[in-house]
Structures are given as structure tokens and as C-alpha cells.
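Entry 14. Structure prediction run on the chain below.
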Amino acid sequence: MNARRGFWHITFVMSLLGLLAGLTASCLYWPNFNYRRLYHNKFVSLCATDEAHPEPNKWGDYVVESKFLSDHPSKYGIKTITYAPTAGGKSTHVTSFVMLDGTTYYDTPSPTIWEYLLLPGLPLFGLALPMLLFKTLDWIIAGFNRST
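Output returned:
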């Protein structure tokens, strides 16, 4: 077996190891990504309910917290809604929901487009990087061998 073929075998093995490393990184990142996506979607759907939009009281102030009593439960399973004033102080926005089962949903940012591209991109990067690196080394070594 010549050196070029041996170098190709090393390239192939290292590319497979890079692919496995990229797949492992994607699998480790998936739970955090999925958690943020699901909690963001649930929070947005709860914010769209009519119970999440309180009316100002008779003094014109907005409420800080809405609690649903056991004799008047929320139809969406909400136990408590917490609000915070906006920057101007003229209105409020929802900061969290506490559900009847004890789950709390906070205002979680949704994953960006780059995070969606990162999941399939890590294995591809792990596959391509060793290939490109060893191909470049092969090209450099071949150039030195021809010059002698």
C-alpha cells in the first residue's frame, strides 16, 4: 500500500470520527433547544388567551398579579399570572404563568434561525473539517515531493 492510499484511509477514519463528534454535539444540544422551543410556544399561546389581558382597576392602575380561585378556576389551567410594567409605565406585560399542576412558564426567547441550522450543521462540519484539513496536507506534501 502506498503512502497516498494510507493517507486516504486516515482521512476517511478522521472524517467519520468528526461526524460522530458532530452528531454527539447535536444530540447534547437538542434537549436545551427543544425545551426553549416548546416553552416559548406554550408561553405565547397562554399570552394569547383572554385571561392574560387584565383591565385596569378603578384607579387606573394595572394589576401586578392575577390569581384564580378554586371556586372560579381558569379555563386554561392557569393558577397565577404575574405582570410587570412596561418601560413607560402605561401598561403591563406578562412575565410568567403558574399552572394548576405547578408548572411555571416564563417569557423564554424562541430559538433563532442559526440554532435551527446548527443542529444539522454540526455533523456536517465534523465530517468536512477533517476532510479539508487532510486534503490540504496531502496537497502540500505532494507539492514538496514533486519539487525534489
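Strands lie at 65-67, 78-85, 92-99, 104-106.
Filed with the rest of this week's runs.
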